[in-house]
Design goal:
With 61 residues, the chain is α+β, with helices and mostly antiparallel strands. The chain has one helix spanning 35-47, and strands at residues 9-13, 19-23. Strands 1-2 form a two-stranded antiparallel sheet. Strand 1 (9-13) and strand 2 form a beta hairpin.
Length: 61
């Protein structure tokens, strides 16, 4: 299977003036995606399917 460099992400301004890059598929910032979540969201965006999200929710501890 060929690899892709596409990112299912969108950018938008934050209150502090910086630009945040979020995922176009799930509600998490792109930087919080691990390898599995990034591949899943890229495949979801490429296939135009609404499948929810597989991002891990790491809790500070």
């Amino acid at each position: 299977m060929p690899a892709t460099d596409a990112h299912a992400s969108v950018s938008g301004p934050q209150a502090n003036g910086q630009v945040a890059t979020g995922c176009a598929v799930c509600p998490h910032p792109w930087t919080e995606h691990d390898a599995i979540a990034a591949r899943y969201c890229n495949a979801t965006a490429t296939g135009l399917k609404g499948r929810g999200c597989v991002c891990t929710q790491q809790k500070p501890g």
